[in-house]
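Example for tutorial group B:
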């Protein structure tokens, strides 16, 4: 048996329950979960807006763990410490074969459809998507590499092609926004952080943002245009709401690139967008979700070569029983940094 945190009722505290340990997939592994982040995507399910998440779901999709069982067709072996992307691609369909596994139509999604890592153990099929935990990196930090950091990396490099010296605007400096800020700075970009929480803006400045804009105070787009001498080259929207999406588009200079990282679901799935700005300025709009697993080496090599420290990303280590409280915190402005579950026994 294992300890789990189960969604039994939308917007209610998660239920801490004993459940059977998962069976091992033929093409995958069972991991003992060493750390699991609590993400805004989990919150979308917790409030009932994610179409795939129903009562009875065990959430948790950004995790790091140690292999305790391996199937006959598994890539990895017992004892391996691994990082998991939240999208597990099949590896054989046309999308996967073309290098775009994050769009795989046969993808598996622990934490969204199948039992996730708000538990002591998680089953991981298609384990060819996993990657070894780099030596010297803690599981707590590595947990974020399965969702927030990988998503930000692919948004900046695989979609927007951010260049050194360009201005990068980040709208919403939660987990993925802070990841974009840290990576963008390491890539040589000049970063403007946007949020409505002064403490988060101050934290962004301490992590290398060149400027911070409080979105409650006048036109965000106009202030970014002024700060950057004509507008950002790349702008990342990291919340998934209409106001920040339009601010992200409108703060761009001609030929700028907007990247939609925030997840528009439920009441935000359809938005009124300033398409005139897109048309008049010749803007490019990119959607992005996750990262193809084959890009892990590029990210890990960049982290090693640039000496990036992602420790400031994690500001709260919590127990499994505190997961529901962290999800509820997403109902309002959140404090700086992200929470990671590191204690699965209390």
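The residue assignment follows.
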């Amino acid at each position: 048996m294992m300890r789990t945190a189960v969604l039994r009722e939308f917007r209610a505290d998660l239920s801490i329950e004993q459940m059977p340990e998962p069976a091992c997939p033929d093409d995958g592994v069972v991991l003992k979960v060493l750390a699991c982040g609590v993400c805004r995507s989990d919150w979308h399910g917790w409030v009932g807006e994610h179409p795939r998440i129903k009562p009875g779901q065990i959430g948790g999709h950004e995790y790091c763990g140690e292999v305790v069982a391996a199937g006959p067709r598994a890539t990895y072996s017992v004892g391996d410490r691994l990082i998991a992307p939240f999208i597990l691609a099949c590896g054989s369909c046309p999308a996967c074969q073309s290098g775009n596994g994050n769009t795989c139509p046969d993808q598996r999604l622990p934490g969204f459809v199948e039992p996730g890592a708000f538990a002591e153990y998680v089953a991981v099929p298609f384990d060819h998507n996993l990657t070894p935990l780099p030596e010297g990196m803690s599981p707590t930090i590595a947990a974020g590499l399965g969702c927030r950091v990988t998503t930000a990396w692919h948004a900046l490099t695989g979609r927007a092609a951010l260049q050194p010296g360009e201005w990068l605007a980040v709208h919403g400096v939660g987990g993925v926004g802070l990841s974009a800020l840290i990576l963008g700075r390491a890539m040589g970009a000049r970063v403007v952080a946007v949020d409505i929480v002064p403490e988060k803006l101050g934290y962004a400045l301490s992590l290398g943002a060149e400027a911070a804009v409080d979105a409650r105070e006048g036109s965000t787009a106009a202030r970014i245009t002024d700060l950057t001498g004509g507008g950002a080259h790349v702008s990342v929207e990291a919340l998934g709401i209409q106001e920040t999406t339009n601010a992200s588009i409108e703060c761009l200079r001609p030929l700028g690139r907007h990247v939609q990282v925030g997840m528009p679901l439920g009441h935000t799935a359809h938005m009124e967008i300033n398409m005139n700005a897109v048309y008049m300025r010749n803007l490019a709009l990119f959607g992005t979700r996750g990262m193809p697993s084959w890009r892990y080496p590029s990210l890990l090599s960049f982290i090693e070569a640039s000496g990036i420290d992602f420790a400031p990303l994690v500001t709260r280590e919590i127990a499994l029983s505190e997961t529901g409280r962290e999800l509820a915190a997403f109902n309002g402005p959140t404090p700086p940094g992200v929470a990671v579950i590191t204690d699965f026994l209390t």
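DSSP finds eleven helices and 15 strands in the chain. Compare this with the pattern of hydrophobic and polar residues in the output above.
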